[in-house]
Amino acid sequence: MTDIPSKAPITDPMSSGARTRRDFLYIATAAMGTVGVAASIVPMIAQLEPDKATLAAGGPVELDLTQVQAGQQVVVHWRGHPIFVVNRPAAALKMLQNPKLVERLSDPQSKEFQQPQYAQNWHRSAKPEYGVFVGICTHLGCIPLYYPNPSASAPVSDWLGGYFCPCHGSKYDLAGRVFSGVPAPYNLPVPPYRFVNDHKIRIGENPPDSHFSFESIRQI
Predict the structure, then answer these.
(1) Where exactly are the structural domains of the chain?
(2) Over 60: is that where the pLDDT of 45 sits?
(3) Average pLDDT estimate for 194-218
(4) Element holding 52 (H helix, E strand)
(5) Do 74 and 66 touch, CB atoms closer than 8 A?
(6) How far is CA 116 from CA 124, 165, 173, 207, in A?
(7) pLDDT digit string (tens) for 129-168?
(8) How confident is the model at residue 82 (pLDDT cuts 50, 70, 90)?
(9) Euclidean distance between CA atoms 27 and 60, whole angstroms
(10) Residue of 217, 84, 213 lying closest to 148 (CA atoms)
(11) DSSP per-residue string spanning 171-217
């Protein structure tokens, strides 16, 4: 089965930085302070180019998690998709279980098949502190923006932290769970991935005990 194409062209939101031949890593950082502090987006700090054969084959991509500090997000490319990898601190994990947030979600229990079994939990990940999502809005294929901190007004009123799609206003929390009453119908997909060790993940490869197929998800 071939990859499910997005419904709209994906444009790379970041284009500057240093290049190498080994990896394809777009890094965007955003500082996450205590709950109630507005998001602060910091421009990309590095860009690495992958091996062309790896890209053509859609092979796994590794990420050193020591590059991702608490509250930060990096964006890597796998199979032509932007993959959001976010380091969620304790305050963010607490918010993901807050009834005030959960009651606003369309699929808080991740019942729709948008993730592997090992990510079908309240944090939608293999480890609570690290979220890994396909960064494509499930409405029309735009790329949601990272607003990690709760805010009274930004990007919308009574913001609880997460992702906001500026194209048509779809909203997701920091587990990639979609809010009710927005155009996007499904949670952000979770790609196959596994922890190689405590400090490195491999995106595009399942843990040894899983046979999850990315082609079987409901929608990108």
Answers:
(1) 25-216
(2) no
(3) 95
(4) helix 52-57
(5) no
(6) 9, 24, 18, 10
(7) 999 999 999 999 999 999 999 999 999 999 999 999 999 9
(8) very high
(9) 18
(10) 84
(11) EE-TT-PBBTTSS--SPPP---EEEEETTEEEET---TT----GGGS
Helix/strand/coil (H/E/C) assignment for every residue in 90-140 = HHHHHHHCCHHHHCCECCCCCCCCCCCHHHCCCCCCCECCEEEEECCCCCC
In one-letter notation, the amino acid at residue 61 is: V
φ, ψ for residue 23 (rounded to 5)?
-125, 165
CATH code for the domain defined by 25-216: 2.102.10.10
**What is the token pair recorded at 139?**
């409405």
Amino acid at 10: I
Q: What is the largest CA-CA distance in the chain?
A: 47
pTM for this prediction: 0.76
